Amino acid sequence: MANSSSGESMLERIVRILEAFDGNTPSLPVAELARRTSLPSSTTYRLVDELVASGLLDRVGREVQVGLRLWELTTRSSSALALREAARPHLDDLRRVLRAHALLGVLDRHDVLYVDRALARSSAVNLATVAGRLPAHASSAGLVLMAHQPSAVQEAWLGSRFTRYTPKTPTDPTQLRRVLAAVRQQGYAEAAGLLVGPSTGLAVPVEGPDGQVIAGLGIVVPVGETDAARTVPVLQAAARGITERMRAG
């Protein structure tokens, strides 16, 4: 695709527009899209018109939102869809048995992308939303996933800058190396007050049919209510069940 004067391709500009939508702002005025993407207004209006014409965006009054055709295309062959279908019964079981929010996430660059969740009647603050992201260094699913990545991926991640969300958020690379080593050794990750003070996340790895870790399965409970000795075996049994369902097709 043709590049702009800045050297950015048409595809890159389209991706920037689509990435401007999030869980808090599912629809936006075109002027706000231009501001968020730092694209010229004329370019944004032209690209939005083309995306609407193709069905990738829909108009809602004076705003636009992600279109149904984009959802259709992305779900046809998504590996996340197969993972989600395999995990759904186990998420429901975890919510019922542990009386906690149950979450399933995959690693995407330096974030956890959540593909499904089952919410419980719990006082725990849960920031994870389906198709939403949380930073790997401040979430139990992120830590358990990063702990099982190749060393080159871990080193690239450790070389980035980490945001401190609470006084307990690990931001020092040396500290994070120790955390990853502990996660590999004990088989689970616990994140007590790393992202929000009142909540603790507990997660275990989920293996794909080939034995590689592909997801993090976890729960969120209020700080001080974690019982790893009781909870981790339940999570691990559910993780094995997801792997078995995926192998069975």
Radius of gyration: 20 Å
Average pLDDT: 93
How do the SSEs run, as a string of H and E?
HEHHEEHHEEEHHHEEEH
- Per DSSP E runs of 2 or more residues, the count of β-strands stands at 9
Helix content, binned percent: 40-55%
Q: What is the percentage of strand-forming residues?
A: 15-25%
The backbone outline, from C-alpha atoms, is globular
Structural class by SSE content: alpha+beta
Stretches with pLDDT under 50, minimum 5 residues:
none
- Write out the strand line-up for the largest beta sheet, numbering strands in chain order: 6-5-4-9-8-7
Report the total helices. Answer: 9
What characterizes the major β-sheet? Answer: 6 strands, antiparallel
**How far do the termini sit from each other?**
38 Å
